[in-house]
């Protein structure tokens, strides 16, 4: 494990400074966890490593917890980054759009704009050369490399994700069932990532919220026969993935339908109005008939 790219408990420099890492936004550092966002609306936070990664082949293990009060609706999720840019907040899970590099996204809320055949939470990866935009309305499915359904929210044990990049092969595994063993999520060949980029993590909340906590970030150097010249040459390539899906046409979100509560009150008001009209009609005809008998 390389310490300059790693982050393990107990976290030192609580509240002000963090060795080898910067943080921004609503991030809170404690000795046991780093909270990127609290379980409150409209919050965002990020954590970025100081040092560029000069390793061609590497693996990172992230231990995290996502939890909150919501039982049916919650969001939005967090992302693990390896990018050219660092410390730039934005709309993609708390970080900038049109990034250059790799994003591994753990998305907890489904926007369901357009068809896709998976449930949430969902883990996916995106490689960007700086020209593509992450489309929240399509849950990023139009630019993802691959993905898998995951269940990690509101569990009473630590959850883990492993990202391995070796010989241009990107593989992502998880340990989300407290079994102390990795489960494969996906493997993608022919992924080209430069050296010299930065690791980071970010999260955001909107109308929905969750606590997004980072418990550790461990970096492992997998280089064996890589020369310094190869490391330098690798810094000049453009992020690329041969299996990158072409962007699909964007579709606007459908107009929201009325909630069940609103429908209930409309029906109730209609029934009360109908009853009131019936009572008025009965009273009117009774009074009219009484007048006829009087005359």
From TrEMBL:
One family name in Pfam for this protein: Lectin_leg-like
Localization, per the record, is: Endomembrane system; Golgi apparatus membrane
The GO molecular function terms of this record are: D-mannose binding; metal ion binding
| Gene Ontology cellular component terms for the protein in this record | COPII-coated ER to Golgi transport vesicle; endoplasmic reticulum membrane; endoplasmic reticulum-Golgi intermediate compartment; Golgi membrane
Matching entries from Gene3D superfamilies are given as: 2.60.120.200
- List, alphabetically, the SUPFAM superfamilies matched: Concanavalin A-like lectins/glucanases
* Keywords, ordered alphabetically: Disulfide bond, Glycoprotein, Golgi apparatus, Lectin, Membrane, Metal-binding, Signal, Transmembrane, Transmembrane helix
InterPro entries named in the record: ConA-like_dom_sf, Intracellular_Lectin-GPT, Lectin_leg, VIP36_lectin
Q: Which residues form the L-type lectin-like domain?
A: 1-222
Gene Ontology biological process terms from the UniProt entry: endoplasmic reticulum to Golgi vesicle-mediated transport
Record field: transmembrane: 263-285
Q: What is this protein called?
A: L-type lectin-like domain-containing protein
Where does this protein come from, organism-wise?
Answer: Musca domestica (House fly)
Principal subcellular localisation of the protein: membrane
Q: Which domain of life is it from?
A: Eukaryota
Entry membrane topology = Single-pass type I membrane protein; Single-pass membrane protein
């Amino acid at each position: 494990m390389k310490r300059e790219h790693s982050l393990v408990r107990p976290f030192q420099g609580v509240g002000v400074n963090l060795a080898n890492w910067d943080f921004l936004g609503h991030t809170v550092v404690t000795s046991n966890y780093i909270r990127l966002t609290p379980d409150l609306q409209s919050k965002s936070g990020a954590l970025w490593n100081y040092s560029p990664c000069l390793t061609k082949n590497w693996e990172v293990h992230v231990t995290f917890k996502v939890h909150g009060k919501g039982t049916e609706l919650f969001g939005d999720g967090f992302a693990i980054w390896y990018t050219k840019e660092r410390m730039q907040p934005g709309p993609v899970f708390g970080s900038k759009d049109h990034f250059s590099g790799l994003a591994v996204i753990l998305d907890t809320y489904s926007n369901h704009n357009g068809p896709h055949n998976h449930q949430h939470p969902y883990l996916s990866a995106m490689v960007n050369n700086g020209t593509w935009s992450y489309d929240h309305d399509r849950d990023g499915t139009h630019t993802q490399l691959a993905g898998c359904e995951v269940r990690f929210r509101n569990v009473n044990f630590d959850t883990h994700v492993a990202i391995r990049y070796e010989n241009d092969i990107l593989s992502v595994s998880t340990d989300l069932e407290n079994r102390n063993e990795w489960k494969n999520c996906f493997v993608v060949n022919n992924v080209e990532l430069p050296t010299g980029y930065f690791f980071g993590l970010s999260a955001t909340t909107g109308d929905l919220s969750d606590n997004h906590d980072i418990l550790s970030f461990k970096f492992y150097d997998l280089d064996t026969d890589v020369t310094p010249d190869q490391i330098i040459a690798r810094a000049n390539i453009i992020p690329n993935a041969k299996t990158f899906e072409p962007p699909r046409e964007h579709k606007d979100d459908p107009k929201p339908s009325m909630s069940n509560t609103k429908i209930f009150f409309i029906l109730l008001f209609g029934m009360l109005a109908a009853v009131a009209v019936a009572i008025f009609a009965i009273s009117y005809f009774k009074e009219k008939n009484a007048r006829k008998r009087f005359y």
